[in-house]
Design brief:
The complex is a heterodimer of chains A (about 550) and B (about 325). Chain A is built from 24 helices and no strands. Chain A has about 550 residues and is mostly helical. Chain A has two domains: about 25-55 and about 100-285; about 295-545, no CATH class. Chain B is α/β, with parallel strands linked by helices. Chain B folds into two domains: about 5-210, 3-Layer(aba) Sandwich (Rossmann fold); about 220-280, Alpha-Beta Plaits, CATH 3.30.70. Helices cover about 35% and strands about 30% of the residues of chain B. Classes of the chains: A mainly alpha (about 550), B alpha/beta (about 325).
Amino acid sequence: MTAVDTRPPAAPVTHRPAADRLAGTARLARLALRTSRVRVALWTAGVAVLVYSSAASIEGLYPTEEDLRELAEPLYDNAAVIALQGPTYAIDTLGGAAVFNIGAFGYALVGLMGMFLVGRHTRVDEEAERTELLRAAVVGRHAPVVAALLLATGALAVAGALITASMLALGLPVAGSVAYGLAMAAFGVVMAATTAVTAQLSAHARTAYGLAGAVLGLSYLVRAVGDVGDGRLSWASPMGWAQQVRPYAGERWWPLALLLGTAGLLTALALQLLDRRDLGSGMLAERAGPPRAARWLTRPWGLAVRLQRASVLWWAVGLAITGVAYGSLGGDVEDLIGDSEGMAEIVTQAGGDLVDSFFATALLMVAVITAGFTVASALRPRGEESAGRAEPLLATALGRRAWLGSHLAVAAGGSAIVVGAGGLAMGLTDAVASGDAGQVWRLTGGALAHLPALWVLAGLGALLVGAAPRATGLAWALVGWCVLVAFFGELLDLPRWARDLSPFEHVPRLPADEVTWLPLGVLTALAAALAAAGLAAVERRDVGS
Amino acid sequence: MATAISVEGLVKTFGHVRALDGLDLEVRAGEVHGFLGPNGAGKSTTIRILLGLLRPDAGRVTLLGGDPWRDAVELHRRLAYVPGDVNLWPNLTGGEVIDLLADLRGGVDPRRRDELIERFDLDPRKKGRTYSKGNRQKVALVAALASDVELLLLDEPTAGLDPLMEAVFQDTIREITGEGRTVLLSSHILAQVEALADRVSIIRQGRTVESGTLAELRHLTRTTITVETERTPDAVGAMAGVHNLRVDGHRATFDVDTARLDEVVRGLAGLGVRSLVSRPPTLEELFLRHYGDELAVLERADADGARSDGERGGR
């Protein structure tokens, strides 16, 4: 062969390192927005609705300055509440009270928003080998991470703007409203950048989220200890910096620079780490596991327990913290409610003694939050099926009923552990504060009284998995309805029949009410019927699609 | 029991899509049956019906003497399955998954398990999320091959394996059939099917278009012959059953319908054969024959309603 190459010589490669590493960033940011547009919309709207409804409820419950002063009085030296919420700046004003009420949870929420938006477009994509596909195109090494940060920052900026607009809509001062929106957005950006770093450390999205979540938790904890003390330790926590912006309490703007500067440094660190690792790998080594299965693992229930135990544990820890939070308020209930009629109306909806009523309502909150675990757990088999992991199992001698039933059993038993942890923690905290040891079993029992209602949700989940696997969202819709009824049923003045759709409405409000066994029995029977229908239905449908 | 799997007129629709449209399949006990067809032909759907995971809309299916939908659990004790796309639990190790699947099937010989892990060069201590596609497939393969079952349903089981592991796989399958077990092997690797399968079924758009031993199938297709003769081989062009004739001096290369091989060779003898090379069709050629040019021609003929040459009906 003496073919003559008539093509022009290849153009010399020009090196523009900085620009090359970012090649394609804008396109990837658009892709991220396209693939996450629903998530971004839900996060931003969710944060804004939470802030607005929380601030509006303060305005509704404590309409006068007098009311606000009475609300504030017992809080200044309540260490437990300060540890949970943050410093008590200007809490005798509507703005200050609203910011305090949303408190550290608001910052945690925007932190999670930043974390999940960045994680999804960095390590999750990389683990699924989508990044490889993209990076093989004309895409710079830094582009995917920078694009994810752009998406998260943009979404957080929109959320911050909506927060500012919400506060302005309630007639609050401009400076404080702008400061609050910026502080929330800036803290979210710090967590977004933190996640960009942890996504470089671990090759697995779960671990990357775990590490970022630990930073968020630590940041919450450090400022809790600092706020209860002299406040100096709070400066070791980015969440503390955000709270030091002090909206409506003589705004301080420079902590915002601290937050954004930290986010910038973390981003630079993430990109440095990215330059030092291979695509698909992390900086942390993977640990080896057992080469053989334990005996119990190879039983159907064993696998269900193994797959869900971490989730049960974390939900139990979360509900225990919630229980401690409510438990710590028990002693101050009368002071907190003061003369606020609106608040008294909510707390005493169960009737009877104010403190008992407060705990009955608190236990209801614990129960409806547990509903999130219950439904996630009951729907787990559907997730396994969608991920293609049910097929090899059901191709063994494992029957479909045993498969679905094992997860349902974990959902039912796990619900008892999670809701019980919430009640137990609440009871222990109040027992320590009030010296009444009887509160431990009274509140634990009161929490467990909600089990039949939780089981109804689990049964519904099983029925949907069995009969209508594409409609499992209905179970989540019912959970959303239960939350709405429990938290806002009174405020929104919902009609009785609409409230009765929530199974929790039929549970006696212990410890304020007497135990009534009939509704508990009916709920349990309903749950059993739903579960039985689900187990029967799963035998009849196609599996694996 | 002579028949392990018997499927007649199987139909399965997903909405408007007719995934299986009257599929027939017969797998005899003790054989390796190759199950061939292009993507979307319905191979995986058929296997999922055989597993009782999907319910057929019409047709008769018998698996190991039972009804795969009704007797799923009972039958699953006697079979093992390897999916083409293996998904593992991210936080269980490969060893745990092997034990899990094998135990749920009714037990495993630990020595056999360890031997297979070694032969397939698998690290059982690694977590599911860290395995590559090939290693995930090895996990499912070891779990299936270590089980003491009568029937193996393998759905493109080696798509992610390297040639070395492919050889290990083929050796293991030969051992298994040596013990009298049955294998249904859906595959895209035609060389693998050619090396292992006793009989094959070729399906297309949810229907079986060809079924039989490789020898039978070859008989229905063409053999390639290269011949050098004393006289110029121009006369070959006039012989019945000869196609694609290329003549270069005294040398001719052509395809001949295998059914007419005998008379063509007799005709060649009259020309004075100096050398003759005959090559039977590969499975690939068989396969392409069904999905390649001739198919397109047939489809056009079908579309014209001029389906008169009987070529399909003749099979």
